């Protein structure tokens, strides 16, 4: 009897343990698929457009954010980075005959033996990237900066690490047209939890191309400066915009990556990011992700739309079906409404810019010289390309990522999400539905229903 009872007891115990293990496994698998899926939107028709202005953050707000005491985290970051660099160095010693899956292979597949582009849609070009669904994305943060941006960058990196990257240890690539100082390198290395590399920009990518007339460029700068246009007289700003449009993704330090997250000085991630946005992009066939939309200063892009239309005349097939063109034009592409994704934050596919379609578009724009004669920004250039050459399903609004670039915030206006993600931004500072933003145009173009409470945050 005693033996019989204890056998029954053992069987019950074994059964309970197995059930518990199965239950835990189920819960865990549910978490891993659901974790990176941001709040879904429903698809319905939406209303009209109005004017208003977003609220600005104060200098005190920035100071308070910068002065965060993250010393323990910094040490942890440095230790993790060292480990990650060792692992990366070990990985570099791989078989040189191993087939490369990097940018070179993709670009080679897009041309024939004679170097002529093969007929291939942009989504076909991106297919090998999306075929990697489920595997860890080849991704890096990319920061273009001057040595003098160091102080502004410290806060940006600390927040990115504490809100997201300390769990993922993605690498960071810093680019500059002059050598980074030792102080710059040592400081940022001590803050990043992943491998860090520093790249020098080739001179021909940060200087005037031979077809640009320098007198005409000087006259163009004077005209914008006389009209008080921001950065109107700046040459370096123009080189920066041209570089961000046509070159950063060609830097050899990025060759092995599929994805990048652009980070600028003086920006802040203001809510926890408890999932991997790169993974979300890769697994869901997204090619371009953003947080803030805004109107461009018309004076800086007087002929951008005309030049774009001229280009499209020869490349009608580049405009894909079910694109996001309504985001950039409300009259069937007759005129540009100045809406764009604010490119100081981008989580996107490097292969989008490496595609034959985008490269041809950039070359055409560049030949006009108007990155210099006018002051074309990389934000409208990227946005127009994404809105026309990608299906709208490949463009993603990270409504759940709290982000601040002076003077505008993307801050979740959903109270539950705001609390769940530990946001430090104020929902009332959210820019999305203010008149100068383009959230309304975006939601319309994507046929998304605006959040129920959007009007409270609209002026
Ligand atoms: N290396 C280098 N980086 C630059 C230069 N000018 C701007 N950048 C970087 O390019 C990015 C965009 O420049 P910003 O000055 O922030 O331009 P912006 O965001 O339009 O304007 P702000 O409102 O001033 O932030 C930032 O990451 C800067 O650090 C430059 O001359 N050299
Ligand atoms: Mg900036």
From TrEMBL:
Recorded topology in the membrane: Single-pass type II membrane protein
Location relative to the cell: Membrane
Keywords: Glycosyltransferase, Signal-anchor, Transferase, Transmembrane
Region called Disordered, residue ranges: 76-104
Record bears the keyword Secreted: no
Keyword Transferase: yes
InterPro entries given in the database record: Glyco_trans_15, Nucleotide-diphossugar_trans
Main localization (coarse): membrane
PANTHER family in the record: ALPHA-1,2 MANNOSYLTRANSFERASE KTR1, GLYCOLIPID 2-ALPHA-MANNOSYLTRANSFERASE-RELATED
Family: Belongs to the glycosyltransferase 15 family.
UniProt-recorded name of the protein: Glycolipid 2-alpha-mannosyltransferase
Originating species: Nakaseomyces bracarensis
